[in-house]
Design brief:
single chain, mainly alpha, D-Maltodextrin-Binding Protein, domain 2, 2 domains, three-stranded parallel sheet, two-stranded antiparallel ribbon, 8 helices, elongated
């Protein structure tokens, strides 16, 4: 690695250094989790062993410390996934940003699309889809059309997960969240319903 590039990495690492050892503190994955394998592979693949410390342990404790530091205005770097309550507090596009990898490098046996929102996240991106039986869809073509049309921003899902994590997990709470989301996205919702109904007219 060129000296200038290494110096730049070291300077960046200090910005995320929580314990004063000169390396960036990455709130990472517990031992044995699938994400640990990817992180450990990428630390080697991207030449980051000297500038990044992969902090591991109970995820809730590690990420809790990161959330507290961010609230104090301290720079943090961390791993999480969506949909998950963490992204209801550390909201991508608002107070945090997804990092982009220079290239895709995954452990042996892993593959998939790593592009999300115009960035290469370096991880295989999953999709959330609605599953229904063929029997149900054949009997309910309007529902099938609605399932095809409906799209919910992942940040909205994470925000709702955060409310549940904070104790708002009753059926009544969830129904209220649904009503609030529909009200905030009324035009899109109405267009889905109208198009779905049109298949049975």
């Amino acid at each position: 690695m060129e000296e200038k590039s290494r110096s730049s990495l070291e300077c960046t690492a200090k910005r995320f250094d929580a314990d004063g050892d000169g390396t960036a503190d990455l709130a990472g994955c517990p031992l044995g989790w699938g994400c640990e394998r990817v992180i450990e592979h990428q630390l080697d693949a991207y030449g980051l062993r000297d500038t990044v410390t992969h902090n591991q342990g109970a995820f809730s404790a590690i990420i809790g410390e990161s959330i507290a530091r961010e609230a104090e205005g301290v720079s943090i770097i961390y791993y999480t996934w969506t949909r998950y309550w963490v992204s209801g507090i550390l909201v991508p596009g608002e107070n945090v940003e997804w990092l982009e990898e220079p290239e895709t490098s995954l452990p042996d046996g892993q593959s998939g699309n790593t592009e999300f929102d115009g960035r290469n996240l370096g991880w295989a991106v999953n999709e959330l889809r609605i599953l229904a039986s063929t029997e149900f869809l054949d009997a309910n073509p309007a529902a099938e059309k609605l399932f095809e049309l409906a799209e919910i921003e992942i940040n909205d899902v994470s925000a709702q997960n955060n409310r549940m994590q904070q104790g708002e997990g009753s059926i009544e709470d969830i129904d209220s969240d649904v009503d609030d989301w529909i009200a905030a996205n009324q035009d899109a919702f109405d267009s889905w319903i109208a198009e779905a109904r049109s298949v049975t007219e």
